[in-house]
């Protein structure tokens, strides 16, 4: 009875979530110098990525659900901030002769 749960049960969960080298349908995203699979994040094998995912999703949940913020105003404010930063960057570049 103890043999029915084999030692590869954690590996099968990892493979079913898209991990493993032999899976053709792996869900992964590519950063600059690494490839991190979704299975590694969900199973906490990549602790740094999992913590970043948990903190950012909690922040977005708090921002949209608890604070009553909506997506359109969030995107508008981010774009306005981006335009202001780019404007200040360009002005400082001309003032510093760069």
UniProtKB/TrEMBL annotation:
The residue ranges of the Reticulon domain are 38-98
Q: Where is the composition biased (Low complexity)?
A: 1-16
Against Pfam families, the record matches this protein to: Reticulon
Q: Where is this region: Disordered?
A: 1-23
Topology in the lipid bilayer: Multi-pass membrane protein
Please tell me whether the keyword Secreted is annotated for this protein. no
Q: Which domain of life is it from?
A: Eukaryota
Report the subcellular localization.
Endoplasmic reticulum membrane
User: Is Hydrolase found in the keyword set?
Assistant: no
| Keywords assigned | Endoplasmic reticulum, Membrane, Transmembrane, Transmembrane helix
Membrane-spanning residues = 48-64, 70-90
Tell me the PANTHER family matching this sequence: RETICULON (PTHR10994), RETICULON-LIKE PROTEIN B11 (PTHR10994:SF154)
| Name by which UniProt lists this protein | Reticulon-like protein
The scientific name of the source species is: Brassica cretica
Q: What is the lineage of its organism?
A: Eukaryota, Viridiplantae, Streptophyta, Embryophyta, Tracheophyta
């Amino acid at each position: 009875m103890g043999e029915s749960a084999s030692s590869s049960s954690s590996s099968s969960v990892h493979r079913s979530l898209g991990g493993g080298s032999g899976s053709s349908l792996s869900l992964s995203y590519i950063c600059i110098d690494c490839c991190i699979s979704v299975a590694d994040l969900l199973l906490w094998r990549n602790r740094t990525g999992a913590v970043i995912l948990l903190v950012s999703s909690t922040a977005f949940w708090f921002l949209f659900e608890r604070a009553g913020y909506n997506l359109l105003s969030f995107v508008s404010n981010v774009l306005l901030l981006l335009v202001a930063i780019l404007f200040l960057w360009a002005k400082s570049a001309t003032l510093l002769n760069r």
